[in-house]
Specification:
Keywords: Hydrolase. It catalyses: 6-phospho-D-glucono-1,5-lactone + H2O = 6-phospho-D-gluconate + H(+). InterPro entries: 6-phosphogluconolactonase_DevB, 6PGL, Glc/Gal-6P_isomerase, NagB/RpiA_transferase-like. It is an enzyme of class 3 (hydrolase). It contains seven helices and ten strands. By secondary structure, it is of the alpha/beta class. The longest helix is centred in the first third of the chain and has 23 residues. Helix 1 packs across helix 2 and helix 2 packs parallel to helix 3. It has one domain: Rossmann fold (3-Layer(aba) Sandwich), CATH 3.40.50. It binds 6-phosphogluconic acid. 6-phosphogluconic acid binds next to helix 2.
Amino acid sequence: MSDIRHLVHPDIDSLAAAAAQAVTGHLNERIAATGQAVLSLTGGSAGVKTAAALADADIEWERVTIYFGDERFVPADDPERNDGQIDDVLLDELGGRPTVHRWPARGAEHDDVDAAASAFRAAHPMPAGDETLFDVTLLGMGPEGHIDSIFPHTPAVAENERLVVGVRDCPKPPPERLTFTLPAICRSRHVIVVATGDGKAEAVARGIEGADPVDWPVAGARGVVSTTYHLDGPAASMLP
Ligand SMILES: O=C(O)[C@H](O)[C@@H](O)[C@H](O)[C@H](O)COP(=O)(O)O
């Protein structure tokens, strides 16, 4: 099992700055080594703030490929989509420099979430086996330990083969979503979890102690090289 650690920051802005600095270091290391890097982004307040902090980072973005860890299966122009929030704070500013792979939107081409997941798999073939898929996966987390659209006690958290699934009956609206699964997330070199507030404290503690991911999905998100939780004081308050 890779190294797992946590860092506590005074507030969400310094947390986002530190997480963005870590993302930058990991991406630049891979760009120096291989000429390219792959990043998976996340929605939520801490995730979007971290993406915003990346707008000032010194990164050769034309060498970076970006995915979104999950997406709400709603129309492309729906303000509920995660990618629109990331466009506003980061991608619009970067223009066409990174390669960005978006999830299918609900619409004329896709009106069924499972068909949309199949279409995404077909359009983005990913190698079987252990080869890493992402250099960095950034994850926000809900109070019940959900990451991406992987919620406790759902088919998505039990998925142990497919890298991408459609989600129905999601406990948090909207009910239909698309998500990478734990087998995909665990093929990241570095996993970075960002969480603030005492509502997240139990999930943080369960994640770091290595609880059953069926109960606390974040506990199943482990990077090949490192797993780091960036927290504020309240989110860290149940750690030993
Ligand atoms: O699709 C979603 O419903 C959100 O993106 C959600 O998964 C979010 O990332 C977490 O709930 C953490 O959000 P906060 O950092 O705002 O608490």
